[in-house]
């Protein structure tokens, strides 16, 4: 059986800005306002920051996946959770009905992170909030011909990632030597994208050239099935590292405003009212 062959749907290079200390640098990997195209993903930000940038703040109605590129990330939540994540570690958060937390650079570090916002279906927007830390050593690695792949979520390359997402997603980091070729297999109905962390590669049927800080969205079979695989061809032109994410589109109305992602403007207003009324609980402080 011939599997659906993925190609590059669109691609661009991340543009960076300097918001001002302590938020040293920021770029939109997945920019705001394109929720229908990125579904089930909402935005993805790349940030360099010092302590004091992302202190206590609320969320409702979605999930976050934070990947630490460099430095140490201190997590504090108002349910008593505390942890420090290092390079290669990932934190999954389900904000659900309401979360209040802080994500800070640890001590005097300059932290470099990628944070992806992953939507929740309407039926799960009232779910309980929770956090899951995935240490780099706990994400299984599959050896490839000319490289390796570390799997944080989903079933990829014969191994299963430990992330306990409320919706079906995959997240994997592919590392390839120069000249290596790799076929990445994903469910055909998953909307997917890849982000190049280092090096340069050619991807998809078209062999589209991508290099560091390039983002590419992929074609997929919108009427396909979760159980049917599709293939993305990748060739590394130099030593290369890339993150690949995929998820099933929700096809629901999305209203994103500030720290909340809901299905209507009324629900956004209610989220702000609930937060101001103290329904998200006390501040997240150490």
TrEMBL record:
The family database entries (Gene3D superfamilies) matched by this protein are listed as:
Jelly Rolls
Which is a Pfam family this sequence falls into? Pirin
Keyword list (alphabetical) reads: Iron, Metal-binding
Q: Which residues does the UniProt record annotate as the domain Pirin N-terminal?
A: 47-118
What CDD domains does this protein map onto? Answer: cupin_pirin_C (cd02247), cupin_pirin_N (cd02909)
The record's annotation in InterPro entries points to: Pirin, Pirin_C_dom, Pirin_N_dom, RmlC-like_jellyroll, RmlC_Cupin_sf
Query: What does the record give as cofactor?
Result: Fe cation
Q: Where does Fe cation bind?
A: 57, 59, 101, 103
One molecular function GO term is: metal ion binding
All copies of domain Pirin C-terminal, residue ranges? 172-281
Q: How is the cofactor bound?
A: Binds 1 Fe cation per subunit.
Q: Which domain of life is it from?
A: Bacteria
PANTHER family reported in the protein's UniProt record: PIRIN, PIRIN-RELATED
Q: What family is reported? A: Belongs to the pirin family.
Protein name (Swiss-Prot/TrEMBL): Pirin family protein
Q: Which organism encodes this protein?
A: Bhargavaea ginsengi
Q: What is the lineage of its organism?
A: Bacteria, Bacillati, Bacillota, Bacilli, Bacillales
